[in-house]
Design goal:
Chain lengths: 179, 200
C-alpha cells in the first residue's frame, strides 16, 4: 500500500474514532453526555465571535497586500530564496506570523483558504501549517510569565527552530500527498 | 511583531496600489475582505460549537487518563529530573494529553500548574531549569491528533472534505516535535558541558 494513501486513511478515520470512543467512554462512565456537550458548545459560539476582529483585521491587510500588487513585488524579490526552500510566496506571511500570534495566523490561513479554495494545494498547505504547531511566543510568555522566570536560556531558540522544521515539513508533505 | 507586520502590509499595499494606478481597489478590497471575514466567522460557529462540545465531554469524563497511560513512559524519559509521582509530572501529563487531543483551552491551566510545581524545585528562581525548557519545547511544537479549529475553518470556507489535512498535519507536527526534543537535548547537554568547564 502507498504510504500516502495511509496518510489519507488516517485523516478519514481519526475523527469518527475519537468521537465514538469519547462518547462511548463518557456515557458508560456515567457522565451526562448531552448536558456536558451543550455546555462546551456554548464556548464554541463565544470563541467564533471572539475571532471576528482578528479575522477582519488580518483579512483586510492580506487582501490589500495581494490586490495592490505588493504580493507579486515581494514574490519577484524573494523568488530565488523561496524556490530554494520550496515555500510558495502566498504562504510566506503565514509562516512569519505562525510562531508570533495564533489568532492572526489563523486569520491569514483563512484568507489563503478563502481566496485559493480550501481544497487547493495552497489552501491545504496553509491548513496543515496552521494546525501543526503552537504559537511559540505566546506559550513562552504565558508559561514563563506565570512563574516569573526571566532568564529563559535556550527555550526561544529551540521553539523557533522547531517551528521552522514544522513549516518546512508542512510544505514538503503537502506537496507529496496532495499534488 | 504583529503590529509591525500589520502596519507594514497595509502601508506598503496602499503605496504600491498608488504607484500601480490601482488606488481605486483599496476601498473596494477593504469592504469585501471585511464582509468575508464576518461571514466565515459566522459559519465557523456551527463546527466550533460541535468540537468544543465533544472536548467538554472528553474533559469531564476522564477519558484523558487513557491518553496519559500511554504518554507516561515517554514523559519519564523526557523529564529525568522530575520524580515519577510528583505533582509536576502529573500536571505535565495532563497538559500534554490535553494538547494531544486538541483541547488547547483545557491544557493551559495544567501547563501553568506544571510550571509552578517545577519552579518549587528550582534553585535559581529567575532562571529556567532544564526540565522547564524541555516542557516548553514540547508545548511550542504543539503535537495534536485533531487540529479542531483548522478543520472547522476548512468546513467554513467550503472544503469538500474538511478533515483530509489531519494526516499531513500529524506528519508536520511530528517533525517539529521531534526537532524540538532533539534540539532541546543538544542544548541541554551543551549547557551542562559549558557549566562544568566554568566550575573547574
Amino acid at each position: 500500500m502507498n504510504p500516502f494513501d495511509l496518510i489519507s486513511d488516517i485523516s478519514a478515520w481519526v475523527v469518527p474514532c475519537l468521537i465514538f470512543s469519547a462518547v462511548f467512554y463518557a456515557h458508560f462512565c456515567g457522565t451526562k453526555v448531552f448536558e456536558t456537550f451543550v455546555e462546551g458548545a456554548k464556548e464554541g459560539f463565544e470563541m467564533s465571535v471572539r475571532l471576528i476582529p482578528y479575522l477582519v483585521g488580518m483579512m483586510i491587510a492580506i487582501g490589500l497586500f495581494r490586490e495592490s500588487g505588493a504580493m507579486e513585488l515581494l514574490e519577484s524579490m524573494l523568488a530565488p530564496l523561496l524556490k530554494l526552500v520550496g515555500i510558495p510566496v502566498e504562504i510566506l506571511p503565514l509562516a512569519i506570523m505562525r510562531p508570533v500570534s495564533g489568532s492572526s495566523a489563523l486569520a491569514i490561513a483563512t484568507e489563503i483558504m478563502k481566496v485559493n479554495g480550501p481544497d487547493s494545494l495552497l489552501g491545504r498547505m496553509a491548513a496543515t501549517m496552521q494546525g501543526s504547531t503552537d504559537t511559540t511566543l505566546f506559550v513562552l510568555a504565558v508559561y514563563f510569565g506565570a512563574v516569573g522566570i526571566k532568564k529563559t536560556r535556550y527555550a526561544l531558540t529551540v521553539g523557533l527552530l522547531a517551528d521552522a522544521a514544522g513549516i518546512l515539513a508542512a510544505v514538503f508533505i503537502c506537496r507529496l500527498v496532495f499534488l | 511583531m504583529v503590529n509591525l507586520l500589520w502596519a507594514g502590509m497595509i502601508l506598503i499595499a496602499i503605496f504600491v496600489a498608488g504607484i500601480n494606478g490601482r488606488i481605486d481597489i483599496v476601498t473596494h478590497s477593504i469592504f469585501s475582505s471585511a464582509e468575508q471575514a464576518v461571514g466565515i466567522a459566522l459559519s465557523l460557529i456551527s463546527i466550533m460549537a460541535f468540537w468544543l462540545g465533544i472536548m467538554k465531554v472528553i474533559e469531564k469524563s476522564g477519558f484523558i487518563h487513557i491518553v496519559i497511560f500511554f504518554l507516561k513512559p515517554l514523559a519519564r524519559w523526557l523529564f529525568p529530573g522530575v520524580p515519577h509521582n510528583h505533582k509536576a509530572m502529573n500536571a505535565m501529563l495532563m497538559n500534554m494529553s490535553a494538547n494531544l487531543l486538541g483541547m488547547g483551552n483545557a491544557a493551559t491551566p495544567f501547563g501553568i500548574k506544571a510550571m509552578e510545581e517545577l519552579q518549587k524545585m528550582n534553585r535559581r528562581p529567575d532562571t529556567a531549569t532544564d526540565d522547564m525548557c524541555t516542557f516548553l519545547a514540547i508545548n511550542t511544537a504543539g503535537l495534536t491528533l485533531i487540529p479542531t479549529t483548522v478543520i472547522a475553518l476548512r468546513a467554513a470556507t467550503g472544503a469538500q472534505n474538511p478533515t483530509d489535512i489531519i494526516g499531513t498535519t500529524l506528519v508536520a507536527s511530528l517533525c517539529s516535535t521531534v526537532a524540538a526534543i532533539l534540539l532541546d537535548r543538544v542544548f541541554r547537554f551543551y549547557s551542562r558541558y559549558k557549566n562544568n568547564g566554568r566550575n573547574k
